[in-house]
Amino acid sequence: MIVILGIDTGFFIGYANQHPRATEIWRESTKGAHELIVSTLTVNEVFTYFYKRGLGKSAESWLLLMQATEMIQLLPVSIDIAVLSARYRLGMQLSTVDSLILATFLTHGCEKMISSDSDFAIVAQQNILLVELLR
Amino acid sequence: MKTLTVEAEITSDGKLRLDVPSGLPPGKADVVLVIQPTTLLKQVDTTQKPIRQPGTEQANGDTEHVADFISVMPLDLNSIANLSHQEKMDRIGKLLTLALQGVEWAEIEEGRRDRNFRH
Known about the structure:
The complex is a heterodimer.
Chain A: E1 3-7, H1 9-16, H2 20-30, E2 34-39, H3 40-52, H4 56-68, E3 72-75, H5 79-91, H6 96-107, E4 112-115, H7 121-125, E5 130-133
Parallel strand pairs in A: 1-2, 1-4, 2-3, 4-5
Helix pairs in contact in A: 1-2, 3-4, 5-6
Chain B: E1 9-10, E2 16-17, H1 38-47, H2 63-71, H3 77-81, H4 85-100, H5 105-112
Antiparallel strand pairs in B: 1-2
């Protein structure tokens, strides 16, 4: 059974730095165990580091590969997501980016989100979405 | 004034031979030469070392590997379409490592802060 996971930027940082759990999830995804939902806000954050390191061409390749991979969905901020995020931004005092990412995951049926952002702990506490924090 | 980039030949006696139409009228001209063996120039062109910003010294430790990897990366959807799921994921992972190795979550977290809205 395929598990739909919301993947925050912290997951990618974890993977790039050999975090064991991030590596495990990536390996499982490679085998088709997970569908990965990624917000375009994460694309922005990852691209910033490609550019910072003078790797613009690599950034383009990364994006093309992400778009072409069946088990990864890159999702932009739609009107529905913007509206829904306002509720979580106010109700849980999340930052704008955090609330948009959470709303993206909820809108697209994620069963769990993977993040390094401890601000998302409240999301699990309020039973809105399962949150796995990479420490 | 004109700036030309050409490949010239150094003869066996060490002299520089240039045969370049200048497109300028006859007469004397000042010429500035920067001479570097072509083999070195080609190394620079293909290595594609990342531009390092302050604070990123720990990242990209293996620049030769990085260059090799970038040089074989497909850059269009047609070539990517021929890759298997495994190959795509592997390449995504390697590229992520290039971009994010050595990055701390705190850096991203700081960029997300908009606490002014908070009560």
